[in-house]
Amino acid sequence: MIHLLLSRWRQGRRTMPYPKTLPSLPERFRGRPQFSPGACPENCRACADACPTGAIQLEPGPTLDLGRCLFCTECVDACAGAAPGEVLRFTGDHRLAVRNREDLVLGPPQGAEDRPPLAEALGKELMRVLGRSLKLRVVSAGGCNGCEVDVNVLGTVAWDLGRFGIQFVASPRHADGLVICGPVTANMALALRKTYDAVPDPKIVIAVGACAIQGGPYLHQAEQLGGAAAAGLPVDLFIPGCPPHPLTILDGLLRLLGKIR
């Protein structure tokens, strides 16, 4: 036993100090995409034509829908081949979660002070009930399991989601809300509705990943409904990505609880 205690003591603190300090992200990390203002060549459709999910629209001006984006960089590669300079790029900004679906549609920045919309905290009454202890039931609604893996990472010692009062639970009857991953297939629609109904009021719904927001790469498949909102659930937090990085998920959860602004 003494050897185990000594070994643990030598290991020191393993939990990252986020949100006090931002952990280092890999060089290839793909964060918030960004247009360069006024740099698109006339009549160029390279990025929009390359996008597999139709996330990029060019009329009346270029926009990118993070809810559909797979962060695959096909648009960036096509844009680089069609236009000089860096018209479209992925930044290192991990902050992607929003409260409203329309806030996921991004356009070119309008100036130096143009800040991207970020998730706001729950209302006063919900914060009173859920702000200090939030229990969530994860529902895998037909996806590839990528988002579920990154959600589960938050329970490891390095992330330690429990220190913020957030915990994943096995039963919806013990939960304050749902975390939905996957596009909600026809086979999962009834199970998801029953799970949602089993969560006591007041409750919240969090859509994690492009599939749960809009259908992701399964967008045009008849077997899926197109995400949590399309399945008839009121979504309180949208966390885009394919899959979103654990830091992006954690950032969204903490903003929802007003722990970071």
Description of the structure:
The chain is 26% helix and 14% strand. Strands 7-6-8-9-10 form a five-stranded parallel sheet, sandwiched between helices. Helix 7 links the parallel strand 9 (204-208) and strand 10. It is built from eight helices and ten strands. The protein is globular. The longest helix is centred in the last third of the chain and has 13 residues, at 186-198. The mean pLDDT is 90. It folds into two domains: 33-93, Alpha-Beta Plaits (2-Layer Sandwich), CATH 3.30.70.20; 124-256, 3-Layer(aba) Sandwich (Rossmann fold), CATH 3.40.50.12280.
Feature tags:
Alpha-Beta Plaits, globular, Rossmann fold, 261 residues, 2 domains, single chain
Topology:
Elements: H1 2-11, E1 33-35, H2 46-50, E2 56-57, E3 63-65, H3 74-82, E4 88-90, E5 105-106, H4 124-130, E6 134-140, H5 146-153, E7 166-168, E8 177-181, H6 186-198, E9 204-208, H7 210-214, E10 237-239, H8 246-256
Parallel strand pairs: 6-7, 6-8, 8-9, 9-10
Antiparallel strand pairs: 1-4, 2-3, 3-5
Largest sheet data: 5 strands, parallel
N-end to C-end Cα span = 43 Å
- The secondary structure category is alpha/beta
Low-confidence segments, given as residue ranges, are none
Level-2 CATH architecture of the largest domain: 3-Layer(aba) Sandwich
How many beta strands in the DSSP annotation? 10
Please report the number of helical segments. 8
Query: Residue share in helices?
Result: 25-40%
The first-level CATH class name of the largest domain: Alpha Beta
Q: Globular, elongated, flat, extended or rod-shaped: what is the shape?
A: globular
CATH topology of the largest domain, by name, is Rossmann fold
Task: Tell me the strand percentage band.
Answer: 5-15%
Order of H and E elements: HEHEEHEEHEHEEHEHEH
Average of pLDDT: 90
Strand order of the largest sheet: 7-6-8-9-10
Radius of gyration: 20 Å
Number of domains as seen in the coordinates: 2
